[in-house]
Design brief:
12 helices, seven-stranded parallel β-sheet, two-stranded parallel ribbon, alpha/beta
Length: about 350
Amino acid sequence: MRILITGGAGFIGQHLAAKLVSQGHSVTALDTLDDQVHQNAKQAQQRFPGEVVRADVANSATWVGLCPHDAVIHLAAETGTAQSMYEQDHYWRVNVDGTQFAAEAAVRWSVPIISLSSRAVYGEGRRLADGEELPAGIDGGVDGTLVPSAEDDEHRPVSVYGETKSQAENVLAATAADKIPVTIIRPQNVIGRGQALHNPYTGVLAAFLARLKDKLPLIVYGDGTQTRDFVHVEDLVSLIAWSLEYPASVQEGPRILNCGSGRRTTLKELALFAIQASPVDVPLEHAEIRRAGDIDHACADLRRLKSIGAPMPRWSTKEAVADFIRSSWDKGGASSEAWDAALQELKARGLTE
């Protein structure tokens, strides 16, 4: 198959392209090669195992000259939760308009589309109601009352980023679901080797790496008991490749799948995993800071994945953190000052508490 991957030159796209090529497919990346994501655009193009079309997914003219492909995998998105709170128009344009154009192309070519959404559509994780019990094997957190998010749960995004991803799902359903196979995958926090190191909006783990390299204490916001679900990029890529091999049914509508480890990790545990994987030893420090759009708890309910025979995650969070830290240690990236500057910008805009 000839497969178009939007955002294909990025972190997830590079891993996905390598896997698909190993399976005998050919791949094309449609990517802006944005400086915020790609420190070296030329190297990103050279690493990609196929043609790279440098263009804007959210520009309708981009899609006019593209030749048909056998499938569309839509990864391109702006993903910074905090940044989305002050670059709202840009996030709506890229994440919603970009999805609209990708869906229209897939319909025009009569091919399946697989689109990455986000756990951000769920918003804050809920707690057990009175009399409610968690099924066996489900991670309810330290006190056993936290409920993992399931695919049929209501959307309650608390950030502009989450709102745009929720609307992008609506766009897919309206544009394509009754015409072509549509799969929507909602990943939790994706980590692993190859993650952008210089982008101060990529997540807490890259910030930890920058401080470790500078031998500075790791800063954990709040008391560190907030929980996240971290999934290794290879586990996500396996699910995308499986979804390509086993397309959704047009008759049943969009197939929506969570992707995560199904296990909670506190931010304090994450910081300790990072220290353990590095060649330095630094202390932890806590800062009473809360950024706009942040939530306290998130975790994926993976029962649907298991029920349909989709690949289940193989990497533990500790293993995934070690893979990221050790593979990235000798590479360049943002200094701790760059991450501090990003936080100061949020403070200046009134987006922290």
